[in-house]
Amino acid sequence: MEGTEAKDSESRDWDNGDSGLRQRRHRLSTFVRTLEERYHAKTLLYLLKTGVPICNWLIDYDWKESFFADMSAGLTLAVFMVPTGIAHAGICGVEPVYGLYTSIFPTFLYMIFGNSKYNALGPFAILSVLTHSIIEKIQTAEMETQIMYNNTLYKSVGTVDPASNITFITSMDDFVPIRPIHIATTVMFLSGIFHIFLGVVRADFLSCYLSEQVMSGFVVGGFVHVFFSQIGECLGIKLPPRDGPGSLLFRVQDLFERLPETQFATFLISLASLAFLTFSRHVLDPWLSSVFEFPIPYELLLASFPPPALPRFELIPSIFVTTLGITIVTVAIHLTVVKIVENKHHEPINSCHELYSLGIVGVLSSAFPVFPVTSIFARTLVGSPDKNTTQVTD
Description:
This is SLC26A/SulP transporter domain-containing protein. The chain is mainly α.
């Protein structure tokens, strides 16, 4: 009797286990069928064309009719952006070569993920100034960390005879010095993440609050900051870094206090460079434009090219809040230019997709030594219908 009951119990357990297995298999097969119905080949192709717009137009690209027009406009845009990138690298506080990389990588990636054939990404003075303020803040904190470490080391060793040849270690064992471009690329990466998040929450409605008067005042104020951030370099005066409310007024005060320290040779070189660029723009350009069909990059004669660097993502906690401000500025400028392009060429542009594009470009290009970019109307004018036909111009 007991043996029969045991067998019946085992049989019921087996049936229950087999039934549970069949239920799991049924749920799995139902889930797979749902995925197949919802995400079939046509749906995946649609998502690919929506997320990567280059797949939407490159298949039908007319190489014979469009390639040479796009190449001509692209070369003009490149010559325009290269010296601009070098100049903004100086404002940002990084090496000039990183201005070249900033003019290349984000623009190339926008060709793949961008939605407008007229927009062009590149450095912007206000973003460069904001990035430079973050770089100064991080480097100041790093210097304080090194000084604190050296003081601790000195106390542990004791008083050292000045005649002895003992050299203190200036950094911790596993401490790698932070270069300015490392901070800039980290800002680029984090702002890209913020842009994608704004696209997810559909924050493109912010463009409704960006009137022409607001943007004009914002740009003028930004260029005032740019001027006073660079005037010390032109005069050969070392001005202390200023940050926070009233920083512009303090910088003007520092400038007048140290004006007697002006390096006459540096001032003459700056004045000669400015005169050369002004003469080239207003005298040589009208004459050379009849010979060449693209502008001459006179600024390249005043630039040098150091090696590249990689980003440092462990800096994210230190730059999180400030980068959020840079993200807002970038979105404001980019959506304003998108609106201008949309009205000028009567071509509807999805602002939400532009936020996705800006975010993806920021995240991917941060793998290279670049600093934050946005869409600029002056460069966008190069991509007009009489000069280019597709995003290949970018």
